[in-house]
Amino acid sequence: MKIFLDTAHISEITEAKRLGILDGVTTNPTHVSKTGTSPSELYPEICKLVDGPVSLETVSLEADEIVREAEELAKIADNVVVKIPVMKEGLIAAKRLSAAGIKTNITTTFSPLQALLAAKAGATYISPFVGRLDGIGHEGMDLVRQIRTIYDNYGFETEIIVAAVRHPMHVTEAALIGADICTMAFGVLDQCYQHPLTDSGIATFLEDWKKVPK
Ligand code: E4P
Questions:
Q1: Which residues make Cβ contacts (< 8 Å) with residue 185, sequence separation at least 6?
Q2: What are the domain boundaries of the chain?
């Protein structure tokens, strides 16, 4: 499973890159607003930093405008993926963009049918928001299972990006289900390699090493 970072912060991307396992980045308008930097300055910098796809989101609500906005975003760098919310106009735009060879990430997805339509529109990626479903008392991972089944049933190549993850168990479940990608906040990524037994195990080894004759 590929690991994406869900952020627009250069410092977090730089640190995640040091781990050597970063496969891509997803941004959204909220992440960008938190940086205090303009997209024109920020987006080229992120795209240059990341060896892999970088999702940049459109904010238009009508298909022609979404396509225009997407074409501008796609000019920023070769690794740009245009992120489009799953709505009627977004799906119309996604179909046209996919025909033009522009990669799309259909986002803010909460139902298997939205995911089916996105795949039929030629979406490169689909982003189900699991944590937000959990937050209203649903089982977010059930949505990922349903999308996996539908895509496998019909051989859709649209890759599933498990998004809005809240903790490492979401990451584990995404991998068990066979999601293609999991995108996560820096804090979640940072938790993924930690374990208290690893910490105590290392501490014991270091203490015992002091007793070894040098
Ligand atoms: C995914 O691509 C989105 O940017 C993100 O996961 C949204 O998640 P949130 O619910 O943490 O805002």
A1: 5, 6, 7, 165
A2: 2-209
